[in-house]
């Protein structure tokens, strides 16, 4: 059980580190250039719907604290991007052009139709958040591909998000092999989809960092 907790903790720490790297980049450069506001807004929606049970479901102090941190940091990033001075003036909506609203509706329908308890609004919201998290990075990846590269700190942010998902995938495999009756098809399928979306970025990230760790990640545009 400790080993499982260690894997999940590594995933949570990678996830949290991604927030701090992004906030550090925004504060250091006074710019949100290269960051997708649409992805950040989707993450706010993900965390607010997944952790609405924070008001009544207290599994542990760690669990409740992580819920608060994820919601607070995601809201903070969106606030700075929309209201921060001079950050908001550096946002480029032309590059952030992915039609993200087309991601939300299918996830809503899936959340209502395929969840762990069709009589529970919370379970529908939870399932919706799982489906939406799987694709929330798409506007950011689209923005990076459209621009042709990811600035150094932005690339670290995306890499840490992907690393968080990798740790969780390993944890799910381990639990399936060691725990009787462990079955979470919704989480597994959504997590696998999310991991696949990162594959091309991971390849370019590793390739770029092998040459120079401090240089932007170059993304080859589709022919």
UniProtKB/TrEMBL annotation:
What keywords does the record list, in alphabetical order?
Answer: Endoplasmic reticulum, ER-Golgi transport, Membrane, Protein transport, Receptor, Transmembrane, Transmembrane helix, Transport
In the UniProt record, does the keyword Membrane occur? yes
BP terms from Gene Ontology: protein retention in ER lumen; protein transport; vesicle-mediated transport
Highest taxon above the source species: Eukaryota
InterPro entries from the entry?
ER_ret_rcpt
- Subcellular localization, as worded in the UniProt entry: Endoplasmic reticulum membrane
Q: Signal peptide location in the record? A: none
Please give the Gene Ontology molecular function terms for this protein: ER retention sequence binding
What Gene Ontology cellular component terms go with this record? endoplasmic reticulum membrane
Annotated TM spans: 61-81, 124-144, 156-174, 186-206
Question: Which PROSITE patterns does the entry mention?
Answer: ER_LUMEN_RECEPTOR_1, ER_LUMEN_RECEPTOR_2
Topology within the bilayer? Multi-pass membrane protein
Q: Which family does it belong to?
A: Belongs to the ERD2 family.
Check the record and name the PANTHER family matching this protein.
ER LUMEN PROTEIN RETAINING RECEPTOR
Provide the protein name. Answer: ER lumen protein-retaining receptor
